[in-house]
Design a protein that fits this description.
Order of helices and strands: EEHHHHHHHHHHHHHHH
Strand content: under 5%
Distance between the termini: 11 Å
Shape: elongated
Number of helices: 15
Number of strands: 2
Structural class: mainly alpha
Number of domains: 2
Strand order of the largest sheet: 1-2
Helix content: 55-70%
Length: 292
């Protein structure tokens, strides 16, 4: 179930200057993209966006300002103060070309990927929950992954075989292998939650994967609890939106010889009970045994 507390954009401000790298252009494009995904905003949300945008516009380059103008061009509720600062007095005067919009789309996707992977856990939640369902009207949700694919991912995780896990994940999600490897070895774990949600994985399977795949995650029971809570709260639409962004980094076609979706002919998973029992002789904490 989606969290009742809608996250704000405030936490993203801290990303503006991280490790000496100026990500203000990236931040301005991303928060604008997130802002226009909601058809309406509260007064507080609008005020926060305007304050953040006005504080960044003067410090970014012309290409970034053009990208922001392109994002706001078709948005009926574009704040007048931001439009004015961009050098316009009304939304009707902002008429960026289709060429500008197309040229910035790929860059924005790459920027959001990098921002997500370099963000803190709190900021990642912020980004994910701002990928609102309103942006999903044109995104087709695939069927849940076939049981055999999820079983292969679980087996690889239980065997701590990150190479097989990454290859299988790349094929299942149709994302580049290097990105799948980044998802698998991420020290915080949120990308795995996104992948699990996109694949229609059960909570219990995800919990076992979290415990074994990546030691930096699995060695902290508290961290596994937190990721399990994120999995419960994260709408599948938001996970699919992030997956669409990942695919924008260089999608790969689905293999013809390995079924992926629920309606594939081969759906029987290899039994994992024996593997699980041999690896985990003791009962896991009660919180981790819950399944959706």
């Amino acid at each position: 179930m989606k969290s009742t507390a809608y996250p704000t954009l405030d936490g993203l401000v801290d990303l503006a200057c991280r490790d000496g790298v100026d990500v203000r252009p990236t931040l301005l494009r991303v928060v604008t993209d997130l802002y226009v995904q909601k058809p309406t905003h509260s007064t507080d949300e609008t005020t926060r966006y305007v304050e953040l945008a006005l504080g960044l516009i003067e410090s970014v380059d012309d290409a970034t300002r053009a990208a922001v103008a392109a994002s706001l061009a078709g948005y009926a509720a574009a704040p007048a103060a931001v439009l004015a600062r961009l050098g316009r007095t009304a939304a009707a005067e902002v008429t960026p070309s289709a060429e500008v919009a197309n040229a910035t789309a790929s860059t924005e996707s790459d920027d959001l990927i990098e921002l997500f992977f370099t963000a803190t856990s709190e900021d990642r939640r912020l980004i994910l929950f701002n990928l609102d369902a309103a942006a999903m009207s044109s995104v087709h949700l695939p069927s849940p992954a076939a049981a055999a694919v999820i079983a292969k991912l679980e087996t690889a995780a239980l065997q701590r075989n990150s190479r097989v896990f990454s290859r299988t994940l790349a094929r299942a999600l149709r994302i580049p292998l290097d990105l799948a490897e980044r998802v698998a070895r991420d020290p915080s774990g949120e990308p795995i939650v996104v992948a699990a949600r996109s694949l229609g994985m059960k909570a219990a399977v995800l919990q076992r994967i979290l415990l074994f795949l990546n030691p930096s995650v699995g060695q902290s029971v508290q961290r596994v609890y937190e990721l399990a809570d994120l999995f419960d709260a994260l709408p599948r639409e938001a996970a699919e939106r992030m997956l669409a962004i990942w695919r924008g980094a260089g999608a790969v076609p689905a293999p013809g010889h390995e079924p992926v979706y629920q309606n594939s002919p081969a759906r029987q998973a290899r039994p994992l009970a024996a593997v699980w029992d041999s690896l985990v002789p003791e009962q896991p904490p009660a919180r981790l045994k819950s399944a959706r």
